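Data deposition worksheet. Section B asks for the primary sequence of the deposited chain exactly as it was used as input, without tags or linkers unless they were present during the calculation. Section C holds the resulting structure in token form. Section D is free text for depositor observations; keep each observation to a single sentence. Incomplete worksheets are returned to the depositor.
Section A, Depositor: J.P.
Section B:
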Amino acid sequence: MKKITILAGAALLAAACGTAPKRSAQVSSGGPRPQWADGDSPDYPKASYITGVGSADDENEASDRARGEVARVFNADVSVTSADSESESNASQGGREMHSYSNDVAQKIKTVSQKVLEGVDIAARWKDPVGRYYALAVLPKTQGLLAVQEKSSEIDAEAAQYKTALSASTEPFARAKAAARLLALSKAQAGLASDSRVLGGGPLQSVFDGAAVRADAAAALAALDVAVSVTGDGADSVQTAVVSGLNAAGLSAKAGAGKADLTAAAQVGVQEQSSGDPRWKRSRATATVSLTDGRTGQTFSTFDVTAREDATEAGEARRRSLASLSKATAAKVTAALNDYFAQ
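Section C:
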């Protein structure tokens, strides 16, 4: 498994670079090294501006790096877990590709911070005597604060709708979905609050009570009755993984088939394969997982996960392949459930 951390500031380099600056300074060549190239610009004091300096052998790359340094200041983050290259998986719902709830949260935060980064300008450029380019990116704090406050108001308005839905509904799935949306919005609002502090704006006025949102979401998700049924070679390992994935989505599960609000079923298999090298034994573990809405009997997510591992002993290769499969399966279960609740 590999863990990808999406920074609402730093990893938005692409978003920052894709936003055309309002003004772009001409390159000055030669002469003494400007003071701003070392991160201190009297023309753009830190009390009023966020600044970033970038350098590269290419003029455009230097500007991109400077914008990235401004983006790096903003530190709201969200973690997204994905399967490594050894695992193959797919998920579908009604014939369309699914996107994880974590990505939905990331997109919320990306939109928030991109709004702030639209105000970044390239205020100065310099080419040193050996041909290296430098660029100074600046963001007026007042301009950034206006964008933060505007987006905060939009998020609060959307959150009010889901708070009403959560309070008004008595149906377990409807409550779980409203709670999931509130959690996503709460994380985006937390990112904005961090940006506001960086910009010198102090705490935001917001409708969010983070502790209350988490408690309401936990209660709504815990109210669902969930059953898990896993069969085949290596079933015990994968069943533990499926339960782990359900728990990560906020759900409590019981083993065994039967009537439930939500059913998770999996078929597991393990095969020995040739590694192409007589010194190594290879094991390939697979699982087909389906998640079903017990109210309607509709299977809303089905996906396959595959993991291959090598070892000098066949038993160790099998253990490793099942361990890798379990991690990938847990992550996919969590993503599929969160996506379903967040619709």
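Section D:
The longest strand covers residues 298-311.
Residues 2-83+118-140 form one domain.
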